[in-house]
Amino acid sequence: MYNMLVVDDDRSEREGVKFLTEQFNWGLEIYEADSGESALEYIRDHSNIDILLTDIRMRELDGLQLAQKVKELLPHIKIIFMSAYGEFEYAQKAIDLNVTHYILKPVEIGEFMRVVSNVIRLCDEEQKEKLKNERIQEIYWKGIRYEKQQFLYDLIHGRGMIAEEDNESPDTAIHFSGYRYLRMAMIHTGSRFFDRNDLDVEPVLTGMIGGKADFVNLNEVQSVLLYEGSPEETIEDLIRMGTLLVELFKEKHSADVSIVISGLIESLKHIGSEYNLMETMLANKFFMEKGAVLYTGEVKSGDRDVYSNTRRVLFDTTEWLKEVEVDSDKIVLLIELLEGRKTVSENYAKYVCTEVLKSIDRPIQHNVNDFIMGLERIHNASSLMELMEVMRSIAQDMIASVERPRELFRSVIEEVIQIIDREYCSEITLESIAKQVYLSPGYLSRLFKKYKGKSIVKYITSIRLEKAGELLLTSNKKITDIGKEVGYPNFAYFSALFKNNYGKTPSQYREEQGL
């Protein structure tokens, strides 16, 4: 549908044009103006006019003057003049404006149809050409973007390196011209994130930078943002930048990410070595709090570096461990971590916690299952803070479970049920639940079936279908919407599953209950 503005100081002429336009079913949206001045004001406020049909003779601002001003605002607008016989001098001026579409007064229906149809055809051709050019441009930029990403991906992984700084390949200028200094910001999610179909973080990230930026997805959990840096940037500036990225992912995607920011890169051949350094720094992520921001020049997390953070957490841990009668020799292992062991690893920290767990002065040999579950929770902890919380919980639960051997298992099952009740409408899985309760999927599956008599998957299905049944009877929502609300966006699958469970389709179930 195109928009046409009809301009004439004679209302009957405007009404006649509208009438004829409706008779031919051109699908034109008609707007009116009774003078050149009002028409120009309308076009200044509305740039969606495709066709201007105007009388030539009007008081003050005539049709020719209007056309000249409108062409300056909308160069591609199509203009049709209405004029009477004997106005050759006006027609001559119109030719100078490249306007070749005329309708003579009094309007003859056949001529009107021919002229307007021809103008609509020209609009169609121009629109097709515009779409074609936009498509070509889109394909071109997609190709350039792919080449840029592949080029950077290869540099990061040590492929296609530039041998001499002064002999960089012509591709370098094509892909990265305009960068005086580069910085990289590595974004690490810790779990699958960047392979989601509904995800398009690149426009948001590059828009946040505000200047020149490129984005490369390395794998499901890691991406790199390449942007223009400056020698004047301070560590505080870089930490602030990283914090903005952390907050962006938390706000937009509810994702906890760690950020590593590189030093300045003055030559593309240094990208690979700088990336390797960033990877090395990221190995400390386990010892950082959520939302850690690291800088390759100096490790940072807020105002604390990784080592002071580790010392603080472990110091707190040794204090409460004394209260649960841990063997003093095992506490020494933790104290070693406090003595500045800068090469401490995640595996060593978990080994220490396992040794501490073994030394708790209680008859744990009578609670083997408790102990095994404790080991699994230690193994699945994703950060030092989380590991210490797991240790505190395990120690307290194991002491209590001497008198109440089944209580620990019940509390885990209750927590799982609460998670299901809270998240059944989302893409919840055995793996995602197991991660939240610090157990392996296999162990949790066996434990849940032992206590509930059915698998977690079947339990989730029963909860979803139960909720669906309630919604069918207590609301007028569409059945497709109910399926989505309880976690089944595929209507055919939801309907078949519901029928298998209730013996009737959702619509039959609703009808038979009288709703």
From TrEMBL:
Coiled coil spans: none
Modified residues (4-aspartylphosphate): D55
Source organism, top-level taxon: Bacteria
Signal peptide stretch: none
Domain HTH araC/xylS-type span(s) in chain numbering: 414-512
InterPro entries on file: CheY-like_superfamily, Homeodomain-like_sf, HTH_AraC, Sig_transdc_resp-reg_receiver, Tscrpt_reg_AraC-type_HTH
Keyword ATP-binding included in the entry's annotation: no
Keyword field: DNA-binding, Phosphoprotein, Transcription, Transcription regulation
Annotated ranges, domain Response regulatory: 3-120
One Pfam assignment: HTH_18
PROSITE patterns from the UniProt entry: HTH_ARAC_FAMILY_2, RESPONSE_REGULATORY
The keyword Phosphoprotein is assigned to this record: yes
Name of the featured protein: Response regulator
Originating organism: Paenibacillus mendelii
Native organism taxonomy: Bacteria, Bacillati, Bacillota, Bacilli, Bacillales
